């Protein structure tokens, strides 16, 4: 019996690890509720060159530090067919300020979706904010970059390297992002139970 449980636990762990996307993998689709109460899916962006997918929330100090930078990313890159889509994976019962009404109050100009289905697990997001740059290959979206927005999680004025923007420029030029992976700095995700 113990041996069977151990094998089962190992299989579940292996499945969980395989569920996390890597650079070059097909991006998992999703269909989640936006702050305008409509459903938004990744496939809704098939007419775009890519999507800047950011797992973020309301209560995390790092997410707050990045709010204005995320707004500027959308303002700069949505016209270039790389819009921002934000997803809040946190449990709003444990963290009231991550609740839907607080998400609506943000009044973002891009979709801010409530992840009550565990989409963050499919992507392997662990922090808020955690970025996944998705490139539209014409045959679906592929992950082109994973990690941080830039090298200064607290002070926008101290940014020296804009990892995400560099990755977008590379993708738009038909090149691979370099680096393609950086370490996301932020609060750990507190998922729905």
CATH topology name, in short, is: Glutaredoxin
Quickly name the level 1 CATH class.
Answer: Alpha Beta
The average pLDDT score comes to 91
Strands of the widest sheet, in order across it, are: 5-4-3-7-8
Low-confidence stretches: 4-18
User: What is the CATH architecture descriptor?
Assistant: 3-Layer(aba) Sandwich
Order of helices and strands: HEEEHEHEHEEEHE
Can you tell me the number of structural domains?
1
Any key phrases for this structure?
193 residues; alpha/beta; Glutaredoxin; five-stranded mixed β-sheet; 9 strands
Can you give a write-up of this model?
This protein is an alpha/beta fold and 193 residues long. It has one domain: 3-Layer(aba) Sandwich (Glutaredoxin), CATH 3.40.30.10. It has helices at residues 2-18, 61-77, 100-106, 119-123, 163-172, and strands spanning 31-33, 39-41, 50-55, 84-88, 112-114, 127-128, 130-136, 141-147, 187-188. It has a five-stranded mixed β-sheet. A two-stranded antiparallel ribbon has the order 1-2. The longest helix is centred in the first third of the chain and has 17 residues, at 2-18. The radius of gyration is 17 Å and the shape is globular. The relative contact order is 0.21. Residues 4-18 have low confidence and may be disordered.
């Amino acid at each position: 019996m113990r041996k069977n449980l151990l094998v089962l636990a190992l299989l579940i762990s292996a499945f969980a690890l395989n569920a996390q996307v890597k650079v070059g993998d097909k991006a998992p689709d999703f269909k989640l509720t936006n702050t305008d109460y409509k459903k938004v899916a990744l496939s809704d962006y098939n007419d775009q060159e890519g999507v800047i997918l950011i797992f973020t929330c309301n209560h995390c100090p790092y997410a707050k530090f990045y709010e204005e930078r995320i707004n500027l990313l959308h303002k700069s890159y949505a016209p270039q067919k790389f819009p921002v889509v934000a997803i809040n994976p946190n449990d709003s019962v444990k963290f009231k300020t991550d609740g839907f009404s607080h998400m609506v109050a943000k009044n973002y100009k891009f979709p801010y979706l409530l992840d009550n289905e565990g989409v963050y697990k499919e992507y392997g997001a662990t922090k808020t904010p955690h970025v996944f740059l998705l490139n539209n290959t014409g045959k679906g979206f592929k992950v082109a970059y994973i990690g941080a927005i830039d090298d200064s999680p607290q002070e926008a004025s101290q940014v020296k390297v804009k990892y995400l923007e560099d990755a977008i420029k590379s993708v738009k030029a038909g090149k691979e992002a370099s680096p393609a992976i950086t370490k996301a700095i932020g609060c750990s995700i507190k998922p729905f139970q």
